[in-house]
Amino acid sequence: MKQQSTPHPLKKSLGKVPVIPPQYLLPFILITTCFALWGFANDITNPMVEAFSRIFNMGVSGGTWVQVVFYGGYGVMAFPAAMFIKKYSYKAGILIGLGLYATGALLFIPANYIGVFYPFLIAYFVMTCGLSFLETSANPYILFMGDERTATRRLNFAQSFNPMGSITGMFVAKTFIQARLDPRSASERANLSVDEFEALKTADLDILSSPYIIIGLVIIAMFFLILFVKMPRDETSDHRMDLWGTLSRLFKLKRYREGVVAQLFYVGAQIMCWTFIIQYGQRIFMEQYGMNAGDAAQRAQFYNIIAMAIFVGSRFICTFLLKFISPGKLLMFLALGGVALACGAIFFQDITGLYCLVGISACMSLMFPTIYGIALKGIGSDAKFGAAGLIMAIVGGTILPKIQAGIIDLDTVFGMPAVNASFALPLLCFMIIAVYGFRTEKVFAN
């Protein structure tokens, strides 16, 4: 007698559970908009490493102080943000985040007036403290807005709008900043007189600052919109502080502990691949196509925008695949794809290597929210501090890019262009993430 197949119990139950319950739809839309807003800040800023390096006549390592300060703010502010959210609410955390974001963006006004590098770093730091509040609040808030069984899918869907903001940021960086900056390279600027250099620097800083000032005004409008909309509260939350007890519980969990490590290396890989695609493509277009430094940087940024478009498309595709493939397994497959493409970026020294580097974005698309969802699964009221640990892991965006910049400034490594060799660092990151995906399936599931 032929046996009738029985649906998997998880799939059967999830079919009746809405990913976004109707009562949470408006709050979900507003918080998801915040994902796009911090994506804009991240990816208008990555190309500024090359821009500041040229404007102030610094090497790549000098320009990466932008990344050190920008992503360092996440590490500094993540746990203070979590403590604030624990005492008050997710909504309060979102509002503080938007307020700091707007303040940092508007600090570009005095920084531009002063005309030296370090005030811009202060503006970036204040802005990213706001982004740390936003991410520490918004990610677990999205997990809270519905059934725990659909939490990873819900977060992946919300995170799908983050790269839309990123694409906008990259487009603004390319069209309204890089295309309008003076195309002369740092070495050409070094030959100018003091007065000529200062006049050129002032004009370029005016161009660079304007989009940040505009986004600051947009963020103020978003602040008041969320302020006056009724948002859901977690009535079951315990507002008492037990920081050390919570951290002790969290770091006894292998799934969480290793998730923080995996997230650190993922963020480092993402920032390296999206920041130094400019230097990678710039070398190819200058050496093999005879472009000047400015035009080569613009062309490389065009490929960065393509990479982000691929990232967006892949995010939606992979979110759909999560209906059929477990998060850990899909994470492992994507990380192994990242390993293969990073090898291509290292060993191909022409446009093929750039294509490989662009392709890495398809593999990265699902990694952040999937690691996040896996690490926080089942930790209940500890989620606010758990989220802080995962946001603090964004500090990987300060350490690893700085090391990579130092390698790039060497010009050649083992007989190959240093910018190619430097992508051994993202290769290592993807290997670590693949191990975490494997352990999610084989160790944490048991």
Listing every helix as H and every strand as E from the N terminus to the C terminus, the arrangement reads: HHHHHHHHHHHHHHHHHHHHHEEHH
Report the radius of gyration as a whole number of Å. Answer: 22 Å
The CATH class: Mainly Alpha
CATH fold-type name: Growth Hormone, Chain: A
CATH architecture title: Up-down Bundle
Number of helices: 23
**CATH homologous group name:** MFS general substrate transporter like domains
Order the strands across the largest sheet as they lie in space: 1-2
Helix share bin: over 70%
The pLDDT mean sits at 86
Low-confidence runs:
1-14
The total of beta strands comes to 2
Number of domains: 1
By helix and strand content, what is the structural category? mainly alpha
Residue share in β-strands: under 5%
Features:
single chain; 446 residues; mainly alpha; Growth Hormone, Chain: A; two-stranded antiparallel ribbon; 77% helix; globular
Explain what this protein looks like in three dimensions.
With 446 residues, this protein is mainly alpha-helical. It has a single domain, classed as Growth Hormone, Chain: A (Up-down Bundle). The chain contains 23 helices and two strands. It has a two-stranded antiparallel ribbon with strand order 1-2. The longest helix is centred in the middle third of the chain and has 34 residues. The N terminus is likely disordered.
